[in-house]
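Q: Acetyl/propionyl-CoA carboxylase subunit alpha, please. Structure only.
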Amino acid sequence: MAREMSFTRVLIANRGEIALRIQRGCRKLGLETVAVFSETDRDALFVAEADHAVCIGGAAPAESYLNVAAILDAARATGAGAVHPGYGFLSENAGFAAAVEAAGLVFIGPVADAIAMMGSKIEAKAAAEEAGVPVLPGYRGADQSDARLLKEAQVLGTPFLVKASAGGGGRGMRLVTDLADAPEAITSARAEAKGSFGDAAVFLERYAPHARHVEVQILGDSHGNVVHLGDRDCSLQRNHQKLIEEAPAADLPEALRDDMRAAAVRLAQSIAYRSAGTVEYLYDPARGEYYFLEMNTRLQVEHPVTEAITGVDLVEWQLRVARGEPLTLTQSDVQFNGHSIEVRIAAENPAENFRPETGEITLWAPPAGARLDSGVAAGSIVSHHYDSMLAKLIVHAPDRAGAIRQAVAAIDAFAVGGVGLNLSYQRALLSHADYQAFRHHTSGLSELFPDGWTQPTADASDTGLAAMALHLHLAPAGTSPWESLGSWRLTAPAGRPGAASYWGNTSEDAPVRMSGTPAELAAHLSDGQSITAEAATLTADRLSGRIDGVPFSRIAHVERSGSHWRVHLQTSGGMVTTDLRTLEDQHLTRASGGSGGADLLSAPMPGAVAEVRVAPGDRVAAGDTLVVLEAMKLLQSLPAPVAGVVTEIYCAPGDTVAGHAALVKLDPEEEI
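A: Structure for Acetyl/propionyl-CoA carboxylase subunit alpha:
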C-alpha cells in the first residue's frame, strides 16, 4: 500500500537550467528549495534563486555533483525532506536513490530496483520481452565469452551493434559491418564499457541504419495507475546525443503509434513504475516495425515539448507522486494540442567539429514569445567542467510547419555575445528540406550536410551594416571626439563629414570605409557599392534607421574580443558574427608582429590535460596530435601548428590549464 510522504523542502541534486526548472515546479506547490553547488557555480542563477544553498565541493563533478555523501550531508544540514536528481549526474544511479531513502529522505523518482533494472540494457530488454514489447533481434545472454559472442554474431549477421549493457550516450558501442571486424569491436566495446561504467558486459543487436528515435512519455503513481502523455521524435542526433526534439512524433501510422503507447504503459505497469519516465523505441520505416531501445527512469531533457502539447506539468506531478498522491488524470483526460519543438542551445562551435566554447556571456537577449528553459544570463561564466548545453528553446504551434517557422524566427531574434553557440547550426537543421519533409533519421546528419556545415558569414551588405554598428558604438551621439574610442573621426563640427575605415579580422586590405554623420551615414563596401542610412542609431543592441526611405531595425551587439571588435548582427539568414579592426587595431597588430606564435601550441580554451603524446626531442609533422585536452566532457586533439622538433613541454596529464595557456614549444623545420 502506498505511503503518504510529507516534505516541505526539496534539495535539487543538479545544476543549471534543470535546477531552475525544478525550482519553478517546487514554488508552484509552495515547497522550499535547496541548491547544492560546486565552487565554480557559486554565482550561478540556480544558486541565487534557491531558498537555501550549500557548497558541496570543487569544480570537478566527482567532488560535487557526484559526491553522494556531500549531497546527503547538505540535505540533513538544511532540513530537506526530499531530493530531486534532475537528469544527468546521479539521476539514474540506483545506489544514490537507495542512499537517499536509507537516509530517511524521499527520492523524487522511481524506486531503486526499477532504476537498476532499466539501467541494465540486458535486464531492460528481458523485462520488455516479458511485457510483450518488441525488441531488436540479437544476443543478450549471460555467456560473455569471445567464442559465444562471435558465434552469435555469425547467426545475427551484419550489420549489427556491440553495445554496453550499462552504457549510454554511445559509449561502449561499436558498429560492425564486416564479421572480420567483430573480435576487435567486441574487445574495444568491453574495454570502454568497463572504463566508463565499471561493467564490461556487452550484448549484440541488429542495426537499423535508417531508423527513427521515437519515445513515449509515461507517468505512474504508487497506487498502480499509469498513463502515457503521448510520443516524441528525437531523431536528429549527433554521436547519439539529441539536438532537436518534437512532439508528437510526425508521420507515424496511427495504429503503430497507438501500439507504441500501449506497450509503454504495459512495460511501466509490469515493473510497478512510479514517477515520470520515458520508454524509447527505434522505429524502422522500411519494415514498418518498432523495437524497444531502453527506458529512461528520470525526467527527460525534452520534457517541455510534452508539457506544451498536453498542458501537464511533469515536475509538479513528480513531486505529487513522491508525496504519495494518486494520479488525478486518467488516460481519457490526456488531450493533445498542436505541435511543439525544442532546440537544445549549447556553447559549442559546430563549424569546428563542435569545439566547446567557454568564457563570460556578455549579452543574453532571448526572443519574446517562446519558452526558454535557461541556466544562464548576461554575466554568467561558461565553464569547461560541465556539459555544454546552456538552455532549451521551446515553441508551440497548431501544426509542425508552424512550429518550425516559430523556432526559426525565435533563433533569428536570439542575440548572444561573449560565447559562441550552436544556434546557426540548429537553424540550418530546422530549415533543411529533409528535416521539414521528415526524411531524416538517427544517423543522417552526414546526409543532411554531405560536404560538411560551415558557419554563415556576413555578405558585403551585412558587413557594411556591421561596420556601421561598430562606427556608432565607438562614437555614441554627444560624445566628444577626444573621449571616443577607436577610429571615429568626428569632423562634422568643422564642416567636414566624419570618416573611418574598418578592416576584417584577418585581412589588411579592402576595408569598409564609413563617411558622413548619423543623420546620413554611408558605408562604402569593398565591392564598390555603398549603403547609406538616414537617422542611424545604435540603441539597446539594435541598429536602426532608414535605407532608401525604408525603416530598418536589426539586433546588433558590439563587443571587444581580444585584439579586435566583434559585431553580432541579425540578418535574413540568421545571426552572423563579423570581426572588424579599427585603424588603431591595425597599428597595434603590426607593432606586435602580428598574431605570431606559430611555433607554440596553446590551449584553445580552459580544460584539463588528458594526454601529452610527445616528449622533448620528438620530431613531429604539422597536424600531429601533441596534446589531448578535456573540456565540457569532450576530448579535443590539439595538433602541431608546424612541423618541427619538440623543445619544451609546459603541461602534464591531469593539469588544469587556462585558455591560451602555452602547452608545447616547437623548433620549426622546413620539412620533416
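A: Brief note, in case it's useful. Residues 254-270 form the longest helix (17 residues).
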